[in-house]
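Note on ligand handling. Small-molecule inputs were canonicalized before submission; formal charges were left as drawn, and no protonation-state enumeration was performed. Where a ligand contained multiple stereocentres, the stereochemistry in the source SMILES was retained. For copper (II) ion, this procedure yielded the string shown in the input block below.
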Amino acid sequence: MRTLVVAVLCYAALSGCARGSGSAGGSNILPGKIEPSTGPYVSVAVDNHFHDVHAQDDITFDRSRPFVVRNEGSNLHNVTIVETGFSRDLRTGRSVEIMLEPGTYHLVCKYHSDQKMTGRFTIE
Ligand SMILES: [Cu+2]
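Structure output:
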């Protein structure tokens, strides 16, 4: 019944801290980050690129894992899932969590699609 569930999370909540005001201010991704095989599949948005969800890669993960995009850049970004019509702006330090049915999806930042801030992933 429920095909799309969205929650906006603050960055501090994702990192296990107490509630934050979302004023993370452009922290960097961790060096050597290894994507776990359980829990959310996280794409970090920077200026102006989606990490770990590239248009040319064949990223596949299980439907039990929510898809999360977290803005760690300093620009305003946007998360649009073309196939669902979902579109949400994402300020610095903010995350969006999306549960999707199995399928292949195209991810676009509507502000930077001309800079190839796009991606593709499959949920099985
Ligand atoms: Cu963008």
